[in-house]
Known about the structure:
- The complex is a heterodimer of chains A (about 280) and B (about 290).
- Chain A is built from 13 helices and no strands.
- Chain A has about 280 residues and is mainly alpha-helical.
- The mean pLDDT of chain A is about 85.
- Chain B contains 13 helices and two strands.
- Chain B is mostly helical and about 290 residues long.
- Classes of the chains: A mainly alpha (about 280), B mainly alpha (about 290).
- The interface between A and B is large, with 84 and 83 residues.
Amino acid sequence: MRSTIYYKAKKTSENIIIHLFMLTVAVTCIFPLLWMVSSSLKTQETIFKDMSIIPKALHFENYYQAWIQGGFGRYFLNSLIYTVAVVIGIIIISSLAAYAFSRLKFPGKNIIFFIFIAAMMIPIQGSFVALYVLLNKLHLRNTPVGYILCMINVGLSTSIFLLKTFFDKMPKELEDAARIDGCSKFGIWWNVALPLAKPVLAVVVVFNALNVWNEFILALLIFDSRPLMPLQVALITFQGEFVTRYPLLMAGLTISIIPILLLYVLMQKYIVKGVTQGAVVG
Amino acid sequence: MKFKSTLENYVFVAPAVIIFAIFYIIPFISVFQLAFFDWDGILPTKIFVGLSNFKEIIADKVWWQSVWQSGYITLIALTFQNAVAFLLAWACDREIRMKNFYRLIFFIPPVLSEVVVGLVWQWILNGNYGILNYWLTQFGLANLAHNWLSDPDTALTTVAIVHCWKGFGWGFLLFLAGLQTIPRELYEAARVDGANSWNAFKKVTIPLMIPVVVLVAILTILGTMQVFVLIYTMTGGGPGYHTEVPVLRILASMRGSSRFGYACAQGITFGVILCMVSFTQYLVNKRAKA
């Protein structure tokens, strides 16, 4: 009897300690974001004095100002366009290639696939210098097309690898049936392989979308003209010019993470899957 | 017919190969060419200088300082960040409530952009108006309050901690996935044999988790050595050169001093360093297994 009580008490106190630890870390994760939102609702005068987490007066007009005057509406749209374009591009190009690497026969297949995979492993740090030079030569610098193509390239290797792994495990019977029905290779890719690959495609979409939305360095090097900039570069530029306009900066930051958080909450399952699969790759 | 079919198969890989060749292979090769030239990125003439860029790197004190500093951040990430990640994963693997809630929260920092994380933390750590210093003063620790990011003594460690804040969720998810693959029966068997939870942890959990630990360590090292957007946003490498890291130096050679050849040589040097680190780890790992 005594030992059960002792055991239970020990278990409970252990659980309390564990929860305290976890909650502390959870609060540390959330607080910076809370503080960001809180600061975005203060005014230029109160932000340096009012240290309360819930400000006395909520100035939602900061968001309107950030969206219009700060230009974040424009930058938001740019980021959205780049992200959608790159993700669509990666889905089509990498699934075509992955399907070919998995199912079709052609000379040089293995060596080409090997080069793609090797590219994932080799870190080349100076590459953005050379990429900048190349884009200049091709007159693609400071153009959306240049940026979109570069970002498609960034996501290509991993996406091909994930999709090929999936296609390798996919049963061949469905494709055979489609072939007997007179489906062309492209027809099979589009009508059979892609619909079956939906779970992997979801992982590919989520990871590439996060990656493009958050990308900074290539956008910084590629875009000179302000109307073309995506959010990440625009935020830095804004901070550099209006050092003291913190409420607007914080509103801009909040605007920039809303799509990310939405995507994350809706697609959490695929993110967990992607992290555990992707890590084995890299 | 056969020929046409093969040609059709090439069409499947052609878009990927073309984009990859233009935006990966060509820059990759030209990094190695440019490294032997002196070039400002604009003039049509490049001056061949042989190995002198590399010779200059060997004597470049700021460069080696930046390499050492990224090593310091990596060391903190390897120990502190991964220890926290492992503890959290271990706690989350037990039968506790709100597991999914914790898992949801811990992976928020990794999905945010480094620019956002950098700017928000810079605001929190602000010397005059930051809430951290405000709280320290409120709790009577005013002597601790100072300008975290512009004091040369604390800047690098502060940046490293923020980096850990952003990154621990990755390790957490991987450790948790690893822990969940350990069959429950093993723990029960250990308990039946009279092992307490510490012994079970030592004899069951740790040995089975070694591969995951190695994987996380490799990812942490390669990821952290290349850190720079966070630092670019928070300190820009300052005060002085106290938070400079290699990728920032490469960017500075290119944009600041318009020395494209030197920047490429730095990139190659750093690539070699990273390869050496990976290789050392591979050797250590192999020895640990044997």
